[in-house]
Design brief:
single chain; alpha/beta; 2 domains; Rossmann fold
Length: 286
């Protein structure tokens, strides 16, 4: 459940930057930014919940007619699990199939993951082909303002990283398709045959192994997972309530979950590049 503060959030359709928790005036300079990828920068995988949800309902219900309660349970789970590795979502599916006991054909999480990725492949490949063939510009599958924002961060000398719940080979490939390889120090996706969290691993390397203090790192993403991880390590948390179809503007459905996860601020896209960079870097240089 959303708490009272989150439930009382109000903003107009024209809102572009929603401050939830002011950042401290005294903090070290920003040195690194960790991005989520799908729904934060890229829209190549836009619509994935519309593929995952019916597949989950189908697998749980089996030969029986699915109830509205089942559909709602699946939708609620997908909503709160956005940002985690696909295999964890499929582990939930396997457990839920067993819990309902409606489908005599039970599979393990890895089988469900392979089936989901098979179904998702067609729309993703079609979009990727349009970019690689030059039929669509890469910006057609990126959140508005992304390129200018990445350019501004690079010009400011801020190291950038990507960590995604998408399988590592796929996220690396899709970063390349959008021509973004040169922006990132590291691109980390989910290990295809493991359940390790790439986002947590990159944050650990930055804050523990590299010794960056919390506010020296910003985490930018459209899912609860990366925002909550950012707050756990004291990093700046910028939520992206993106409308992945329009690629610009604030998606009200995402605002509440990002606020509940602890985002310091929420945006819909990156078109206000100067304002975003100024907000992230507002600090007295030491």
């Amino acid at each position: 459940m959303l708490n009272d503060d989150v439930m009382s959030l109000t903003f107009s359709p024209d809102t572009t930057f929603l401050t939830l928790t002011p950042l401290p005036e005294e903090r070290p300079p920003l040195r690194a930014v960790l991005f989520d990828f799908d729904g934060t920068i890229s829209t190549l995988r836009e619509g994935w919940p519309a593929i995952m949800a019916p597949m989950m309902v189908e697998m749980i219900a089996g030969p029986t007619a699915p109830t509205e309660a089942l559909r709602e349970e699946v939708a609620a789970y997908i909503d709160r699990s956005t940002g985690i590795q696909t295999i964890h979502q499929m582990a939930w599916l396997a457990e839920t199939v067993a819990r309902y006991g409606l489908n005599p054909e039970t599979r393990d999480a890895w089988w469900y993951k392979a089936e989901y990725l098979r179904r998702l492949k067609a729309p993703v490949e079609a979009r990727a082909a349009r970019v690689t063939a030059g039929a669509s510009p890469r910006e057609a599958f990126m959140i508005a303002g992304s390129l200018a924002f990445l350019d501004a961060l690079r010009a400011a000398g801020i190291a950038m990283y990507v960590a995604s719940g998408t399988d590592h080979p796929d996220v690396v490939r899709e970063v390349g398709i959008l021509g973004l390889n040169d922006y990132f120090v590291e691109v980390a996706g989910a290990p295809p045959e493991a359940m390790n969290c790439s986002k947590e691993a990159v944050l650990r390397r930055l804050t523990v192994e590299a010794g960056l203090r919390g506010p020296e790192v910003a985490v930018i993403g459209d899912g609860r997972v990366e925002i909550a991880l950012a707050r756990e390590v004291g990093a700046i948390a910028l939520g992206v309530a993106s409308d992945e179809v329009a690629r610009q503007g604030m998606n009200p459905a995402k605002v509440g979950k990002l606020a509940e996860a602890g985002a310091h601020a929420v945006i819909g896209d990156f078109r206000e590049t100067d304002r975003l960079v100024a907000w992230l870097r507002h600090a007295k240089e030491s």
